[in-house]
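re the bet — no i am not wrong, look at it urself. input seq straight from the record:
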Amino acid sequence: MKIHFYTLGCKVNQYETEAMTELFAKAGYVAVSDPADADVIVINSCTVTANSDQKTRQAVRRFKRGNPDACVVLAGCMPQAFPEDAKKLSEADIITGNTDHKQILELVEKHFENKTGTQLFAIGAHATGEIFEDLSIDKFGGRTRAFIKIQDGCDRYCSYCIIPTARGRSRSRSLESLGTELDKIKASGFKEVVLVGINFCCYGLDIDKTFTDAIELACGKGFERVRIGSLEFDNISDEAIARLAKLPNFCPQFHISLQSGSDATLKRMNRHYTSAEYAELCAKLRKNFRDATITTDLMVGFPLETEEDFEESMAFARKIGFEKIHVFPYAPRSGTKAATLPQVDGAEKNRRAQEALKLSTELRENFLKSQIGKAVNVLAETYNMETGRLSGYTKNYTPVSFEISSDAFTSIVSALSNKVLAVRITGVDLENDCCIGEMI
C-alpha cells in the first residue's frame, strides 16, 4: 500500500506528519510523493485562519478528484475545531482530529474492510487533564533540521483564536521521552534540532519543569544548533534568559508573536502583556544574545481597531525594528469572542494590511543589508543546479546563498550539504529574500 501525506500549517503539524509517516511505514506502507500513485492520502489540516480552512477543503476535493480510488483521510485541527463542517466534505473517506494520531492507521485498515463506502468519523474530545500524546520519530525526512514536538495545547484563549478548541489545554512531554527522541535524531546525523509547541513557553507547567529545562537537555546532546519555534510572551523570565545565554549552541532567533502594538487592541485580543512589557523583553534579548533576531506576527483590522490604534501599532513595530514581520488581516473565526464584535470594513482592513506589508518589507531590507561584511556560519541545506549555489541559514536564521568555490559542483555538493560552512556576506538578493556571500 502506498501513502501520501499533505501537511498544512505549523511546525507541530509537520512533526506529527513525520510521526504518522513512520507509524505507517512500520505497518508496511510506502510513502510516495505523487498523490496520484497513492492508495491512501492523509491531509493534516490547519485551522488557524479561515483561509487555512479553505485550503483544507480545496485539498480534500482536489485529491479525491485526482485519485478517486484513494482513501482520503482528513485529520488535524480543522475537523477537531469544526467537526460539522468537516462532515460536509463527502470526498473525505475518513475524518479524524488531534486527540489520537495513532488511530488513523486503524481507521484506514477499517476503511478497506468496509465495503459500503460509508464515511468513517472518529473525533475524540479534548478533556481537562488530558496527557501529552507521546508520538515518536527516528528521523525527519527530506530536511536538514529536525522538528521535535515538546508541548501541545493552549490555555490562553485569545479572543480571536480557535486553537484551544482544536488543540485542547496545555500539556507537556516528559524530559525522559524527549531525551530518548533527541538521541535517535542525533544518531540520524542531524546537526540542528528545533523544539516546537503550540504555546512553547508554557512547556513544563503541568509537570513541574520549564521550557528552559527542555532546551538545556537538547543543547547537552551534542547538536551543533538547537533552535526553538514560535514563542508567546508567557514565562520568558530573566532567569530563563540568563540560562539560555550560557548555551553556546542555542540559536538566538526569537519569533515572538506581537499581534498588535496598541494596548487597547491587545486588551480586546485578551493578550496577557502590554506593548511596554513586550518592548522590555525585546531589549533584554538583544542585550543578552549577540546577533539576536526578533521576528513577529502582526494582525491588522482587528474588531474595533481605530486608525489611531493601527498607527500606534505601526509606530511600535518600527520602534522595535523587527527583522521580519508576518502580516495577517484579521478574519473572524466562529466560536471566538472577537467574531461577535463590530468588524472593521474589509477595504479598510486590506489597506492597513498593505501598509503593514510595506513596513515589513522595509524592515526586512534594512536587516539583510546590515549583515553585509559579516563572517557567519551557514548550515548548508539546498543546492541550485542552475546557479551552482548552496543556500542555508545562520544561527540567527538569516538566509544566505553562496557559490561553491569549485568547478566540480556535483562531486562536492553531497559532502557540503548538512555541513556548517564559514561564509562572508557580500550582498543582498531582495527578490529571493536572502543575503548572498562567498565561502571563506
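see?? The chain has 14 helices and 18 strands. told u. also The first strand starts at residue 2 and ends at 7. so pay up
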